[in-house]
Hints:
The first copy, chain A, has helices spanning about 1-20, 25-40, 40-45, 45-50, 55-65, 70-105, 105-125, 130-150, 160-185, 190-215, 225-230, 235-240, 240-250, 265-290, 295-325, 335-355, 365-375. By secondary structure, chain A is mainly α.
Amino acid sequence: WQRFVAKMVGVMLQLKKPAQDDPRRLIHSFKVALSITTVSAFYFVKYLFVCFDKNPMWIIITVILVSEFSVGATLAKCFNRGLATVLASALGLGCYYLVDSIMGGHIVGSVFLGTLIFVIVATMTYMRFVPQIKAKYDYGFLVFILTFCIVSLPSYRDEDLLDIAKRRVITIFTGVLMWILVSIIVYPIWAGEDLHNLVSKNLQKLGDSIQGFGDECFGTSEGEGSNKSNLQAYKSVLNSKQIEESLANFARWEPCHGPFRYGHPWKQYLKIGILLRQCACLIDSLTGFLDSTKTPSEIKNKVQETCIQISKETGKSLKELSVSIQKTIPPCAANPSIQKSKIVAMNLKSILKSGLWEGTNLFEDIPIMTVTYLLL
Amino acid sequence: WQRFVAKMVGVMLQLKKPAQDDPRRLIHSFKVALSITTVSAFYFVKYLFVCFDKNPMWIIITVILVSEFSVGATLAKCFNRGLATVLASALGLGCYYLVDSIMGGHIVGSVFLGTLIFVIVATMTYMRFVPQIKAKYDYGFLVFILTFCIVSLPSYRDEDLLDIAKRRVITIFTGVLMWILVSIIVYPIWAGEDLHNLVSKNLQKLGDSIQGFGDECFGTSEGEGSNKSNLQAYKSVLNSKQIEESLANFARWEPCHGPFRYGHPWKQYLKIGILLRQCACLIDSLTGFLDSTKTPSEIKNKVQETCIQISKETGKSLKELSVSIQKTIPPCAANPSIQKSKIVAMNLKSILKSGLWEGTNLFEDIPIMTVTYLLL
């Protein structure tokens, strides 16, 4: 019984974690619930219910499917869904009437329509594999296939097909509009802001890692635990590519807000991201040396001082760059640190030229850091 | 006009590329089209149409939404969709009857039902942020929210609610069954096979990169172009984490097939993947040295021979490991190469101890390669 209680507490703690990491997730959940409850008013209020042709189901479905976390993602998805619905409805109607007028009612007509559906579905499914389309319009193509099939297939019900198509377009647009309004007006979550924070946080993590590495490698650390976690911080930077790219993709959809304007250089963020990953790679290789650096103590003593200094200065300047990105100010504060670390690097180089090969990687950080600096 | 033609040709070539990279994509498209056309028979044949309560739309929607590329992904999605539909239908019906029996028809009942929907939707949306759920059951939770809303909301139509729920469950299961049959019987695409090939291909790419690096760094290369692309091969390995994890996730769903059985060690593939990414990181750092290695030519001459040898042997053994993974045989073929590269590495070490610091990273590859080897 106690184990059961302990397990339940564990599960509850896990449930609490996402909200602790990012409280906006809680807000997002309430936003979704709010908009769905509002939409369900279409069911409760008889007048609205009749307005939407007794079938407001698609409004609810649309709201649920379109409710993405950030504004940019929402707009991208809404655009996809809206455009795809209109195009597919038009094409589906066209196909249906074409077949109907030429050979209506015959079995040949059904076969022809089936062939048409086969060809179009196969083409669209295949198109989804094209990388450029997959990145941006994957959802749109899915909706296109769906709507096309629903509209073009004849039903034996005595309803007007044009009516079905029209109603589908109207309900979907109502749903889309609903969620766009809620997501922009009620505590909006911007993908651009996320990207901005992610990049600056990654810079800081790298700074932490480099400092942690210097301490760890040359054994001046006391608080072991916190250092280890600092040293591991770079690992999340290594795998940040997909997140950054999708955020940048969404950020381009967002209207101007806060300190950002249209034409904010999102591509620059991606470039910084690439450099950061290279830098994280270097740190990863450096940690590979951790064990091997523990043996030759006479050489170590010679470089120890400089190496600690260099890792400290590099880490410091990376962190200062991170702050300056965060505040979108020119990175003057980092200048002295970079100057210092360059000087220390020169020192180290001259020491190394006298015949050592330990810790060489360290000053390979400097060029990359400088490039990062130049990009700002 | 000519520019227009040239552009069209360019677009056509881009369209051809996915099929060239992986012809199974073409087959997948045809499979989807085939199953949808088959399902649309429910519309054309009047008897079937009546059977499914005049609304086979949801079968088509299900087939389209559930049609994933690999069998594993399909089964995972079908399981999610099926289970979520049943649970949500039950809960939705329960909620509706509860509210209906206590305070049916009153405005209070509507408000109470609205509150219930609000709470459940908010909880479910929030749950989707928990990492473990997001990785495996994200789609299931989405379907749960959808079905719950549709079933629990009262409609003013004179239909039995139980009937709606029952029909929804039946149509969705028909659609799911349809696609599962097509995807397993007609030229199945296994995620496990993909993962298997991906890992062995990544190993080979790393081998290529290391060999390319050796040639490039010490300037014995003639065919510049092909070497450059070899050298860049490791880059795709760096970003393979997400793909590998999702493939391994799907592979666990797949029934036994081909050379694989239940309990195939998918987790081992992920471990190899992590080691491969570390190795790719090392290569990435090595390429950073490419420019700096071009200057000091007297030291270079001393190590040149050994370095070329070491990169060749390492590359060769990586490639042989790749072949042995591909064929699932013990990696005996790689043994001599690994022995050789170890010997060469020892040579290099002794050279380096006489006071050089160029190219030190090279023999850092050996331990990692050996670990990869031990894992098999």
